[in-house]
Design a protein that fits this description.
single chain; mainly beta; six-stranded antiparallel beta sheet; disordered C terminus
Length: 596
């Protein structure tokens, strides 16, 4: 601007880095300002005088250069007149546009960038669709199978009974085991608490217990008001959560649904009227029906008896709530009734009249009308009954019983006769694919349990066969007070066929002590624990780790004597074993070549 300009813009000059804003820096500032006389400055930057006297050693007042009509001054050798030619600071703009994003990246960097993005996408797809393959055929499962181990668990103060159930577990693909049980007959006071963390169960009651399939650790247990007789965990999904619940049948009219994962009770059978006189007792294991009450859950049908009446009634039960649908339908022409099956909405049942038995039929819709006093509203749209029904074993003692099991074109026939432990006999015959006898076994004072079939693949080809238990009674001790201790041995026998030959192997042998009480001293009236009928279904094959390998699950119960205060005390124990039979079979196959 010209020298005659009346308005001057302020010019800011950075202070030297040696200047600080402390009270002791005024002398440094003055020395810097007066050190070089060739650079005149505005004295108003730091003017000692009245203000300085008042403020002490404070920094001078900062003001804009050239204001209040002062003449042009120089700053750092530059004319103030030249420094204030424009209001704005000049911004230098590049001649070419600035490179941004991918334009600034070299081809090599672009290659690595897109490669990393593609690698992330491939990783996500692998974890979503490649790794969750079929565990039985997944190549990576071969190395993980070695982690699956055999185990044994001892439960004190209880007797396991009935069939073994395999149910879903909490973690991933693991499976759990569910058993029925009853208390210790020799310790009815209930003071014998299990060391495994399970309280004692009353003799007249019982319960359910679940073990983790991979380790045998107790998952949960539940006491019941009556002794359980049968269980099935594959028929009914009460809450439609995708997991079938366990139906438990017991004495005293006990029928309830239990969550297999948590052990929580879903419902217990009760009469629609809520009256004790209408409560059904002495139940059969129910048949699964179509959904009759339109609650989205299949319903049930069972035979029963009413208090102080004959066992000749049929009752419909809601699968979602456990409440009976209507009243019990009594079949007047029959003394006893047992339900058999349902097909095409036609129910078949056994009608017992004196010593005679006959199979009769009844239409499901007619049964519904008699129970509810109304027609079924959606008869034309009613779906058929599920094909999968309970295949139970009643476990009732009998004088003679014959069972036949087939696998791979070979058959095993088991026949038990007499009454154990006093007078019984077992005979087993195994026939080959051509029907010829390939192995047989007979024994006195012995009993064979229900056999199970096995089929799996081996390096040399498919392997099939049978597994069963033999109970062989030996010595007996009279303990007084009509109490007898029977000594017996339990053998688990494996009959194996491969493409070339057959082997019979003793996989396990255990000693069992059975306590029996003779009522009124009569040997024909005995009650024993462990009870033979409870042990009939103590074998099962299953894939507990979902790794494609089969485990042989078995259990046994026995009394163990201990000395306390110079007296012998008997304690009941149950042992559960899970053996990786598929992995151990080659060792057993080579070690044992002797046929039993």
């Amino acid at each position: 601007m010209s020298g005659g300009s009346t308005t001057q813009k302020a010019v800011y000059s950075p202070l030297p880095q040696t200047i600080s804003d402390t009270d002791s820096s005024e002398e440094e500032l003055n020395s810097v300002l007066h050190s070089n006389n060739s650079f005149p400055v505005n004295r108003k930057l730091a003017v000692p005088g009245k203000d300085s006297a008042k403020n002490g050693q404070k920094m001078g007042e900062y003001r804009q250069l050239g204001h209040d009509g002062e003449t042009d001054v120089s700053l750092n050798g530059l004319s103030n007149q030249e420094s204030t030619m424009a209001d704005d600071i000049l911004i230098v703009k590049p001649e070419e546009p600035t490179l941004r994003g991918f334009q600034h990246m070299s081809p090599l960097r672009k290659l690595f960038f897109f490669g990393s993005v593609a690698l992330c996408g491939v990783t996500v797809m692998v974890f979503l669709w490649v790794l969750p393959c079929d565990w039985a055929t997944c190549p990576s499962a071969q190395g993980l199978r070695a982690r699956s181990r055999s185990w044994e668990r001892t439960l004190v103060g209880l007797e396991l009974k009935g069939a073994i159930s395999i149910v879903p577990g909490v973690l991933g693909r693991s499976r759990n085991l569910i058993f029925m049980l009853r208390g210790d007959v020799g310790n009815p006071s209930g003071s014998n608490t299990s060391r495994a963390g399970v309280e004692s169960f009353p003799v007249d009651g019982g319960g359910i217990i679940s073990l983790i399939g991979s380790t045998g650790v107790i998952a949960w247990w539940k006491r019941l008001s009556a002794l359980p007789r049968d269980i099935d965990c594959s028929l009914l999904d009460v809450d439609n959560n995708g997991v079938d619940d366990c139906l438990v049948l017991g004495d005293k009219g006990l029928l309830l649904a239990i969550d297999p994962v948590s052990g929580a009770q879903r419902w217990q059978l009760r009469a629609a009227s809520g009256k004790e006189a209408d409560a059904p007792t002495d139940l059969d294991f129910p048949l699964v029906l179509p959904d009759l009450d339109d609650d989205g859950v299949s319903d049930l049908l069972t035979a029963c008896s009413l208090p102080r009446q004959q066992r000749n009634s049929l009752v419909l039960v809601s699968g979602g709530s456990g409440v009976s649908l209507g009243r019990n339908v009594q079949v007047q022409a029959c003394f006893r009734v047992h339900v058999l099956s349902i097909e095409n909405l036609t129910v078949s049942y056994i009608c017992q009249q004196g010593e005679k038995e006959a199979v009769r039929e009844m239409e499901l819709l007619d049964l519904y009308k008699q129970a509810t006093n109304r027609m079924f509203p959606k008869a034309g749209t009613l779906a058929g009954a599920p094909s999968h029904q309970h295949k139970g074993y009643d476990g009732r003692p009998s004088v003679a019983r014959s069972l036949t099991l087939s696998v791979g074109g070979r058959s095993l026939t088991l026949e038990n006769s007499g009454r154990c432990p006093l007078h019984c006999r077992v005979a087993v015959n195994v026939t080959g694919q051509g029907g010829q006898l390939v192995w047989n076994h007979t024994a006195e004072n012995a009993h064979g349990t229900v056999p199970v079939a096995m089929v799996f693949a081996d390096r040399s080809g498919p392997v099939s066969g049978f597994v069963l238990k033999f109970w062989q009674w030996g010595a007996r001790d009279d303990l007084g007070a009509h109490l007898v201790a029977h000594r017996l041995s339990e053998r688990v026998v494996l009959i194996v066929f491969n493409s070339s030959d057959m082997r019979v192997v003793n996989t396990n042998q255990s000693d069992i002590t059975q306590l029996c009480s003779c009522l009124d001293g009569r040997e024909e009236d005995i009650d024993c624990q462990p009870n033979l009928s409870f042990q009939e279904q103590s074998l099962l094959f299953g894939d507990l780790d979902q790794d494609g390998s089969q485990k042989l699950i078995s259990y046994l119960s026995t009394y163990v004597s201990r000395t306390q205060n110079n007296s012998v005390v008997w304690h009941l124990e149950s042992k559960v074993r899970a053996i990786r039979l598929e992995a151990e079979l080659p060792k057993l196959y080579e070690a044992f070549t002797k046929v039993v």
